[in-house]
Specification:
The complex is a heterodimer of chains A (382) and B (476).
Chain A: H1 2-12, H2 14-23, E1 28-32, H3 38-43, E2 47-50, H4 57-61, H5 73-83, E3 95-100, H6 103-114, E4 119-123, H7 131-152, H8 158-184, H9 190-202, H10 205-222, E5 231-238, H11 245-252, E6 256-264, H12 279-290, H13 301-314, E7 319-325, H14 329-344, E8 349-354, H15 360-381
Parallel strand pairs in A: 1-2, 1-3, 3-4, 5-6, 5-7, 7-8
Helix pairs in contact in A: 1-9, 1-10, 5-6, 7-12, 8-10
Chain B: H1 2-16, H2 24-38, H3 42-56, H4 62-78, H5 81-86, E1 90-94, H6 101-109, E2 114-117, H7 119-131, H8 135-142, H9 154-164, E3 173-178, H10 183-194, E4 201-205, H11 220-241, H12 247-271, H13 280-284, H14 299-317, E5 329-332, H15 341-348, E6 352-356, H16 374-384, H17 391-404, E7 409-413, H18 425-435, E8 440-443, H19 455-475
Classes of the chains: A alpha/beta (382), B alpha/beta (476).
Chain lengths: 382, 476
């Protein structure tokens, strides 16, 4: 798939490109998490960059002098490269919008502040069923809008915002279409599909749209994966950029990641932002209310289970693989709830946990577990 | 005959807990029954009365024994919660930390209709502090859905295990506060989804999104949001259990709380004396009614506090203490009283550990709120508390206390299970040390249990800290 290679190259050189843009006066806005609408950043004439890295234990450990050992490796890694002096982009960011959803991400925001990086915290109340919680988030978005306007000197007009929403809706639509293709047969592996999602954050929208359209056509014609591969639903918190070991091993073991149920690092392409009426309210509504609630929201697990169960049917899933990171206490508890339910509906369930230590010693048992679980699905089929 | 012999051990515990001779026969069967439910055996009773309690708490002091009595009475009451529920009493739970005014107001408004408790905290404190036997409950949780490796909070595991084992009933409302950690409220969701569909929760939360150093109590918008959260939570609780609390009741509770806090302040002031007159272990529980909602109300603990204060006042007058004069004093982010050997280990090194940062009030905490409205006042009070705010403000509050109480060293840690309250300690060490000449230390440990941090594992660190503060004190 040439398109993926081209996107991969584009994505790999993105930091350099952004540093150059920054030198030319373009504002670079880093952000964490799924509640910061890129639409606003584009509409302000700035360039967003999703800080969502994973898979490197050294970057995780770099945070130890400042943070509790038992924090999420994912949260820790987001500032780890900066502390190691290996991050070209974070030091030049004009603003980091740090989503404060849970303790891990909120502490990450504290560290950004501590290291004097220009930080704006975006509070996301987890008790999402209350009207005043929504209002709180909405006010946070209005504050973000104001900050972006001040920083860039550009007013975010209705028209500019509409254009950027349209463009991102188009991206979501393309990912949705590709996802629809794999619903029927595994035309693209999960590893590639997750990467594609990551590329969609790392490319400028017009480039991505062009490439994704061509990929969609290519897949329609030449979807090439084996149709009898056990179909896996990869669920959990996040497969971050660079943390591809688990989906890769699943596919090396001849399983097919047919769908994902992840809280971060993916585009929520099922939900477009409406273009009619008050666009700020539309953004808030889509980002806060409409999409599947993250695990940290409360109450959420009942609703999440229903979504997950529906996905297993819609995508004809053979096994749910739950992938979580060490010391993520909320996901750890949710995994038990999911495991119990999967047992009730007779759906095989495999829980994997990582601290991004992918040494040979650590990967071998991981591979064995994945291999044997896929093999047992095959055996059942026989 | 065997039973009579066994009775002796249980009787001895009640004696130690200051139960009067003539009331012991009445309480004995109740205590035996409760002990069985708590998994406390005859051997545990002997171990506690002959070793653990006398070695870690100064039971020669009547105030300390009365404190033990208050605790025992509360837990005796807690194991009857199932019976209360059957009689139609409304069960309301809470978790640490919470704004207690509302729980006490419910109790004061309808004493016979409402049962209030923070069951996990009471059970953990009693079993860990006085019997060193909290682990069976934790393991019950770990084997059934809250895996050990996730480094979960002992209190949350206890709440779940207590419900799972039937020790406590489903609440009519579990009013859960997520002002600090996520795990507390999410454990309630876990219990409901995994084990008990009747576990009904009301959540009250606030995002951790204030810029570094913001004095959150001075930001009206912040106070208003929190007040709205509290009001919404309290009204939902009242609606659910069918009890309407009058504003006058809330005011009465605020007065009572203020009065109690003043009395506690007197004890803490005495603790500043040299030589240190009382162990940190013995000063923690009298502060409990400001942290936990007692269904038996606060009178028994208040009596313990009064007695203890009198005894300590007497000691101070006679210049008596538990450590030599001039011994350095440390302030802990908390006093890990569920592992009471920790404080004792410092004391054996002639280093005092008398202060619990979260309970020692800052100057601002001792002032009345700006707002007259009960919810705004409660919200403002909360946002003055160092443990409830952003790290910059928290550091500012800690620095003030270190100066006020002339502390020789600050010990962070003991909160390895808490992704909020415990996650910034390493950073706080750096900030506090940079802004003051007080040395800071970090001890990774778990305040609720000691499976992973045994005395052997921590001895070297504690000995080293002790040597450092002693040398520094000498140099002064």
């Amino acid at each position: 798939m040439e398109t993926l290679k081209s996107l991969s190259n584009y994505s790999r050189t993105r930091p350099e490109t952004l540093v150059d843009l920054h030198k030319k006066g373009v504002k670079i806005i880093g952000y964490t998490g799924r509640f910061v609408p890129e639409e606003l950043i584009y509409a302000a004439g700035a360039v967003p960059y999703l800080i969502c890295r994973g898979g490197d234990p050294e970057a995780v450990d770099a945070v130890l002098p400042y943070m509790l050992r038992f924090m999420s490796p994912y949260a820790r890694q987001q500032i780890g490269y900066h502390l190691l002096g290996l991050d070209p982009l974070v030091p030049v960011m004009d603003l980091i919008v740090a989503q404060c959803t849970d303790c891990h991400m909120s502490r990450l925001a504290d560290l950004f502040e501590h290291f004097k990086l220009p930080t704006l915290k975006l509070g996301v109340p987890p008790d999402w069923k209350k009207v005043f919680s929504y209002d709180y988030y909405f006010k946070g978005l209005m504050r973000l809008k104001k900050n972006l306007e001040k920083l860039t000197g550009n007013e975010i007009t209705h028209e500019k915002l509409k254009e950027s929403i349209k463009s991102l809706n188009k991206i979501r639509g393309l990912l949705r279409s590709i996802d629809q293709l794999r619903r029927k047969k595994p035309v693209i592996g999960g590893y590639n599909f997750i990467q594609l999602n990551h590329f969609s954050f790392n490319c400028d929208p017009s480039t991505f749209i062009q490439e994704a359209e061509s990929l969609f056509e290519e897949l329609k014609k030449n979807g090439h994966r084996s149709e009898d591969a056990p179909r896996i639903l990869l669920a959990g918190h996040v497969v971050a950029m660079g943390d591809y070991v688990v989906p890769r091993i699943i596919e090396e073991c001849k399983g097919a990641v047919a769908s994902e149920f992840l809280d971060e690092g993916m585009r929520f392409y099922q939900w477009n932002v409406k273009l009619e009426g008050d666009l700020m309210k539309n953004l808030a509504r889509t980002y806060y209310y409409d999409r599947i609630p993250p695990s940290i929201f409360q109450p959420a697990w009942h609703e999440r289970l229903a979504h997950l169960e529906k996905k297993t049917k819609d995508y004809n899933i053979d096994e749910v693989v739950w992938y979580q990171l060490s010391f993520e206490e909320v996901y750890n508890m949710e995994s038990s709830v999911v495991s119990k339910r999967m047992k009730e509906i007779n759906m095989p369930f495999l829980k994997l946990e990582s601290s991004y230590d992918y040494s040979r010693e650590a990967t071998a048992p991981l591979r064995t577990r994945i291999e044997s679980s896929i093999e047992s699905i095959r055996a059942k089929r026989r | 005959m065997i039973e009579i012999k066994e009775d002796e051990a249980y009787r001895k515990y009640l004696q130690l807990a200051n139960f009067e001779k003539d009331e012991i026969p009445g309480y004995l069967p109740e205590w035996r029954k409760a002990s069985k439910k708590l998994g406390l055996t005859l051997a545990d009773m002997k171990f506690a009365t002959e070793h653990w309690i006398p070695e870690n708490f100064e039971v020669e002091l009547e105030g300390v024994r009365k404190m033990l009595r208050a605790y025992t009475l509360e837990v005796l009451d807690l194991v009857k919660a199932n019976e209360y529920k059957k009689k139609g009493v409304k069960i309301v739970y809470g978790i640490l930390p919470a704004s207690l005014v509302f729980y006490y107001a419910l109790k004061l408004e309808a004493p016979d209709k409402v049962y209030v408790s923070f069951p996990d905290a009471f059970l953990t404190h009693l079993l860990a502090s006085f019997f060193h036997k909290v682990v069976p409950f934790l393991e019950e949780a770990e084997q059934h859905g809250i895996p050990y490796g996730g480094r979960h909070c002992g209190l949350n595991k206890m709440r779940y295990a207590a419900r799972r084992s039937g020790l406590i009933p489903s609440p009519d409302v579990s009013w859960i506060w997520g002002f600090v950690c996520d795990e507390g409220p999410k454990t309630d969701e876990f219990i409901r989804e995994y084990c008990d569909p009747e576990w009904n929760t009301v959540i009250t939360r606030i995002p951790h999104d204030q810029p570094y150093g913001t004095r959150e109590d001075e930001i009206d918008e912040r106070v208003e949001y929190l007040a709205k959260q509290m009001e919404d939570g309290f009204k939902t609780v009242q609606r659910t259990i069918g009890v309407e609390v009058q504003e006058d009741t809330i005011n009465k509770i605020i007065d009572r709380r203020t009065n109690y806090a003043k009395k506690l302040g007197k004890l803490y002031k005495l603790m500043t004396s040299d030589p240190q007159p009382l162990s940190g272990n013995d000063s923690v529980y009298p502060a409990d009614p400001l942290m936990l909602a007692y269904n038996t109300f606060i009178d028994t603990m208040e009596d313990a506090l009064d007695t203890l204060t009198d005894e300590i006042e007497h000691r101070v007058k006679k210049r008596e203490g538990i450590l030599p004069e001039g011994a350095p004093k440390l302030m802990g982010f908390i006093i890990p009283v569920c592992n009471p050997w920790l404080v004792k280990m410092f004391e054996k090194n002639d280093v005092g550990f008398p202060y619990y940062e979260g309970m020692v009030p800052s100057e601002k905490e001792m002032t009345l709120p700006r707002f007259k409205d009960a919810y705004m006042g409660a919200a403002e009070t909360w946002l003055k508390w160092g443990h409830g705010v952003n790290i910059g403000y928290k550091a500012e509050v800690t620095l003030e206390k270190l100066q006020t109480y002339e502390i020789d060293g600050m010990v962070f840690g003991f909160m390895d299970f808490d992704r909020w309250l415990g996650s910034d300690h390493r950073l706080l060490c750096k900030i506090v040390e940079k802004e003051s000449d007080v040395p800071t230390f970090y001890i990774e440990a778990d305040a609720w249990e000691d499976r992973d941090y045994s005395p052997e594992a921590l001895r070297t660190r504690i000995d080293t800290i002790s040597e450092i503060v002693k040398m520094r004190k000498k140099r002064k």
